[in-house]
């Protein structure tokens, strides 16, 4: 099988997250709003068609030259029901606490991952930073995310809370 895709001239979101940390906070926040809105709209469309991505992470979100966003890695090479679940800590960070426990994924699982990514875009760090893998998983399961800088608008903080279901 041969798959031809668009050229993602700005690379994946992981690269953009690193670049964002060089910008002034106000400018970074504007970019985060724009990218977040596009990702959420794309997921909303997918979910309205009954499609669950299951592997949302910065490496699977691509940025075009014009700043538009594309979701990638829909596991085309393997039936989604036969997929091995990710086991690396990098993959675990984007899995919702309920998925950590029982491996049941739903539309909320995709949204949770977006909340983690928005946090990362703002801070350059994952919200569950800890010294060990077991500590990271414990923080995820207990919903113990890091804090956002005070200069992040309350609306953006609320978006992250709602995506990650943090009370």
From TrEMBL:
**Which PROSITE patterns does its entry note?**
PROTEIN_KINASE_DOM
Q: Please indicate if the UniProt record lists tRNA-binding as a keyword.
A: no
Kinase is among the record's keywords: yes
Q: Which InterPro entries match?
A: Kinase-like_dom_sf, NEK_Ser/Thr_kinase, Prot_kinase_dom
Instruction: Write down the EC number.
Output: 2.7.11.1
Q: What class of enzyme is it?
A: transferase
What Pfam family does this protein match (any one)? Pkinase
Report keywords, A-Z.
ATP-binding, Kinase, Nucleotide-binding, Transferase
**Ranges where the Protein kinase domain occurs:** 1-167
User: What SUPFAM superfamilies does the record tag this protein with?
Assistant: Protein kinase-like (PK-like)
User: Listed GO molecular functions?
Assistant: ATP binding; protein serine/threonine kinase activity
* Family annotation (PANTHER family): SERINE/THREONINE-PROTEIN KINASE NEK (PTHR43671), SERINE_THREONINE-PROTEIN KINASE NEK2 (PTHR43671:SF13)
What this protein is called in its record is non-specific serine/threonine protein kinase
């Amino acid at each position: 099988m041969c798959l031809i895709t668009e050229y993602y001239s700005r690379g994946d979101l992981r690269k953009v997250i690193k670049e964002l940390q060089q910008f002034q906070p106000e400018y970074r926040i504007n970019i985060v709003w724009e990218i977040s809105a596009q990702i959420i709209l794309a997921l909303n469309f997918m979910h309205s068609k009954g499609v669950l991505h299951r592997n949302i992470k910065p490496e699977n979100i691509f940025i075009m030259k014009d700043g538009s966003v594309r979701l990638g890695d829909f596991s085309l090479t393997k039936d989604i029901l036969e997929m091995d679940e990710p086991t690396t800590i990098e993959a675990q960070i984007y899995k919702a606490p309920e998925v950590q426990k029982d491996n049941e994924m739903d539309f909320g699982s995709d949204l949770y991952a977006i909340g983690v990514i928005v946090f990362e875009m703002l801070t350059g760090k994952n919200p569950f930073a800890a010294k060990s893998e077991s500590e990271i998983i414990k923080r995820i399961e207990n919903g113990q995310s890091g804090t956002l800088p005070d200069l992040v608008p309350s609306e953006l903080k609320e978006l992250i809370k709602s995506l990650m279901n943090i009370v």
